[in-house]
User: Fold these one by one.
Assistant:
Number 1:
Amino acid sequence: MTTASASLGASVSAQSRHMQLAMAALLGVFILGFVGFSHIEAVHNAAHDNRHSMAFPCH
Amino acid sequence: MTLFRNVVFVAAIAGLVAGIALACMQAYATVPLILQAEVYETAGGGHDHGAASAETAAPAASATQQAVPAEEEEGWAPADGAERFLYNVLANVVTGIGFALVLVAISEFAGGIASWRQGVFWGLAGFGVFTLAPGLGLPPELPAMPAADLNARQVWWVATAVATGAGLWLIAFRKSLPLTLLAVALIVAPHIVGAPQPDSFESPIPEGLHHQFVVAVTVTNLVFWLLLGAVVGGLRGWFSGEAARLRDSFA
């Protein structure tokens, strides 16, 4: 599995690797929170059909 | 930051592809049902889109969603037709990128998705974690359907996804019996706690329409997740092939 760690980010330390992956995951969670869960009305209305169709809690 | 950049790059492409595909599926499968439900919603007189903002303004004022008066002005919303479709595409692409970021980052912790076929299995896991598990307690709902307090449902949804994801991770990557038992407990626990339910299930939406919607949402999300996983796996495989080729050519 050396190719696995080398392919998406060549030769980084394990700690920095974990930090970067955690940051990427956090960015994803932040994006999902904004589109799917934010209570801002304009965001809700813009993403309305998407929220219903993704079965995010809505209304 | 190469790794972070590459994760974002793969996730952005996969999210774009899967999000556009999902929006097209929704245009045929789910959005027409939402539009039908909105006829019942407006016929009922009450349109509770403003409820979310009312709740943030006065969280203690209402225990249930239905208790919020629906009198206030509606905020901006995309106009029906092309504009609404475009916003739905945009929302789906952004959601797709968000899910893809989580999928790529978490799968990299496990060594990464090696091929499109492995990606399909990761996609199945994502479907289980983000559609199936939360959908058991909180089935996809149409506009005008009764529902419990929004915050409580959002908390339950997120907690269920996290617990199910952790459970699946333990089953897949920790090959031990006690941890597998813990995993099963984690997956079952949110359903023992139970999702927040409305006080009354009385709804202007016909049962048949809702059932159709649940099936449409579940199936479209299944295809979305399989595609997302496959594209991530395929891209990553191509990426590592390219990287190896570059290394070789520079050597």
Note: Chain B touches chain A through 73 residues (CB under 8 Å).
Number 2:
Amino acid sequence: MHPLPRVAVFFAVLLLLGGCATTDPAADSSASQSDYSNAELENIREGTYNDAFESSYDPPPATPTLIRDATIMTAAGETIENGDLLMRDREIDTLGTDLSAPEGVQVVDGSGMYVTPGLIDSHSHLGVSATPQVGPHYDNNEVGMATPELWMEHGVWPQGPGFARALAGGTTTALLLPGSGDLIEGRGFTAKLLPARTPQDMKFPDAPGTLKMACGENPKGGPGFPTTRMGTAAGLRSTFLDAQDYHEQWQNWLNDPSGPPPDRDLGMETLAQMLRGEMLVQVHCYRADDMATVMEIAQEFDVDIRSFHHAVEAYKIRDLLAERDISASMWSNWWGFKMEAFDGIPQNVALVHAAGARAIVHSDDDLEIQRLHHEAAKALRAGREAGLDISRNEALRWITAHPAWALGIQDRVGTLEPGKNADVVLWTGDPFSVYTKAQRVWMDGALVYDRTDPDRQPRSDFELGGPIPN
Amino acid sequence: MRLRLALLTVLLVLLPTLPAAAQPTAFVGGTVHPVSGPEIADGVVLLRGDTIAAVGPRDEVSIPSGTRRIDASGQVVTPGLMDAATATGLVEVSAVGSTRDNALDTDDAIRAAFRVTDGINPNSVVIPVTRLGGVTTVASTPSGGAVAGQGAVIDLHGETVDEMLVRDRAALYAAFTPGAADATGEARGGLAMRLREAFEDARFYAENRDDYRRGATRDLSMSRLDLEALASTLDGERPLVVRAARASDIDAALRIAEEFDLDLRIEGGEEAWMRADRLAAADVPVIVKALHNLPTEFDRLGSRFDNAARLDSAGVPVAISTFDTHNARTLRLEAGNAVRYGMDRDAALRAVTLAPAKMLGVADTHGSLEVGKTANVVVWSGDPFEPLTRVEHVFIGGDEMPDDSRQKRLLRRYDDQGDWPPAYDDGS
């Protein structure tokens, strides 16, 4: 289910308040019989439907640019040989062959090179498990059985050296997530991987909210935590019951705002949003049976799951994932590091894809986020070895269009189509070759990385004056 | 008597299943990379028994009748790859303690006598997975403490460890890292002090064995077994591999190795590029991970992708490792990434074959396609370093490895969904 755009929520609230749908709440003088003024109700609304921490992302200056004579892999369909791509007004303007260069447009010779959308990672801990990985940098897991009150962006260190590395690897967007140490870890953070001074400066504008949950081995066994999978399932259901109560209290009060409003609860606010379908739910789950249990719980509470993360056994239940339109975020070949990863096979991604579910290659790793294209290539080869007929364009979608869908930003990024954000990578060659590097990376039309120009290679504060010369 | 009869019966039943002496095999027509010499465009590699019988251009190698011919035209033939830093056979599930046998759980900083060999499990499911990635030989290595113990070089084929062993006690492993310093007072100076004390005591022990047996020496800082292990290393029976990342830690390892005349290799070496000339002058080889470029710890702020390329250019012998166990099968991609960041192609292939074999003392039998060497051969559908390239054939000791592993069984069990539960499909 698509998240409701914020404006829809706004109108829904006005309707609940008994007002008529107008674009200016201040003009609505007949809102209710409440003890609260409209302005006060608006503040309460702001608390419940939280608009704090807005994005302040402001891309660097952009020059209209025409890439010429490149092999363009759009991730939307056919590859364009000897293709041209025009970026203008921060968007993909035109794709084709033999385009003429409008006045003032910078022309880039792409002959022998490849073009793809900026790569997207549906699972990263950059910023909360920042390098150097010393104790004071550990901001990944909070203690508590369920901590839906956490916001990932309050732990992101924008100076983490990993951000600039990921960008140099052609990855332009990532879902930054808290860890998996408890049942519900809090809100994720959809980030533009452009190093900045504040997390808000990296926040992907208007990206829908995301919620991170976990099942299986990680959220059990700690002090004060459930010790069994039965306990984690019960804990999740109990928490959702509490959220239903909270949601109902607020619905009732907003229907009739006489008397004091219910107390606010940060965690329950997040879960109430989930129950309203405004959160894209991301669940860390390895084993097939664990995913099945979480799917049942989600159905019980009428919640949609957007993506299972790590999903090492997704291949065992790929038909269920396809039926329920749940994506699977997977590694190309990680396995064996713990019991619930023991059944990992390199064909996982390809089998899920072939079953018609959305397959995603994710990193969960500050090195692999720099080479998602190699990881996709590995998964493609494994699939072909098993006789699955998968095109290169489809494999590219595992690291572009599909993660964009998991993050709910598929209308903005993830393919090269006119009108989409100009997040573009020019590669030195075939992105599925081990020898290929990102030559240039554009974000919203701005050239934010150039392999040949040290002035276009960002570095974190931390690394200034370090052993690697600028 | 009854027991003997039973044994005899078991043997007679097993006899027909024992493999016959391997039929000679020839790979014909591929691009052959012997590593020890230049590539051969239209080559033949002939295996007889467990060794390589001939390598050369097609028109110069005569193939005896009765030989199994494998058409390798359009394909690439290389020696089996070797990963010099794994815990293969020692770790089955990393997070399950009862399946880990690569480190001693002790407060002692010096664990020189610890030998991994008896802990290696030939039935580890990691082994077939690894060799199907073209990796035929690994060093299974210990970790932990200041001196971790002794590793073994094994071929990834055999029913017993004895069959797999290429070289037991192939190297002694130590570390000059903050982690190792934790075991010696949490300061690098304490670590250096403890290492020097250990080697001094071992040297003293070696010179005074009789007095030691009579109890007529001063107190020594280790057990007799640890003293023996260090003493034989001082005698040159095996190299000392030191895990070190920071440039100054590499300096410390070089200094200590020089003081005790040890045959040193550096492992990890994230900042080794800063000491390339010094390492080249001292002819100290380095085992690196190609795919590391982040300041993950304070001792490796200078980690960069072109480390291997820079070391190779300076003349330092370089081996490339995954430093992984379950994914040691990705070794070829590590080598490819070293090329991506500037390393010469031939050097990168050498770094995953002959270079690690030399570093760990097994180059007389391993690491290249040369007559008389062990018949470890891999045939690739194309460039071995490319992720889209398939592994076509893997031979170890002249035996073809079956296209089978626990992962393959899972794949075949789940690749189609029938009316019966998957449990009824054995995946063969």
Note: The first strand of chain A starts at residue 65 and ends at 72.
